[in-house]
Amino acid sequence: MTRRELDIAEVVEWPLGFQLLFILLLVIALQLLGYWGYVTPKYNLESQVEDQLHTIKQSRNSNQDKIVKLVEVEAQYQQAIERGKKLSDPLMPPQDVTALLAKVAELVGRHSLSLTRIELQSANEYRFLTRLPITIELSGLYFDISEFVTALAQLPQVIIIEQIHWQRSGEASSVLRLRMQAHLYQLAVEKRDES
After folding, report:
1. Which residues, by range, are in coiled-coil regions (predicted)?
2. What is the pLDDT along the chain (195 residues), one digit of tens a residue?
3. Mapping DSSP to helix (H, G, I), strand (E, B) and coil, where does residue 179 land?
4. Which of 25, 77, 107, 175 has the most CB atoms less than 10 A away?
């Protein structure tokens, strides 16, 4: 029997060598088919896992960047709070006006001056600040008055002296009368809508 005479339908009648070769080729083909059927899903799964791993790495890097930015923003926020405190510390809270006026009266007494009047005028409100005009009238010796004004300037609150009028009590007297226009600054009170 020649190779040309071999018909697949008559495999049983083939010589034993050809039958074994045919079975071997069939087994190899089935093995390859099975291997391909087994490996392809594994390869696809590996590809999916690699894609997911890549996505996770990108997400992790993105999250790390966000965390770094968040830490930077938090540091900037803390710096802004500290700057705000430094800026607002010299400004009086609204409830401290009477305490400051008492402190001014105490400074007047400490420097041997006589206080004629302290007048707090109506407030000028701005967006973040309230400016309180104040008039202080007192009398005493020149050096005592200068020490009082120096002590007033050293108070931690913002007090701006705008006008000072000096007047001698009498021609022969060394006592001076002082009338001072100043402004106290305080944080503006937030107005809440009651609706």
Report:
1. none
2. 555 566 777 778 888 888 888 889 999 999 999 888 888 888 888 888 888 999 999 999 888 889 999 999 999 999 988 887 777 666 666 567 778 888 888 888 898 888 888 888 888 888 778 888 999 999 988 889 889 888 988 888 778 888 888 888 777 778 889 898 988 887 776 655 554
3. strand
4. 107
Read off the amino acid at residue 151: A
Q: pTM (2 decimals)? A: 0.52
CB atoms within 10 A of CB 86: 9
Q: Is 78 exposed, middle or buried (0-12, 13-18, 19+ CB in 10 A)?
A: exposed
Residues forming beta bridges with residue 165, ordered by sequence position = 179
Residue ranges covered by each domain of the chain: 13-89, 94-187
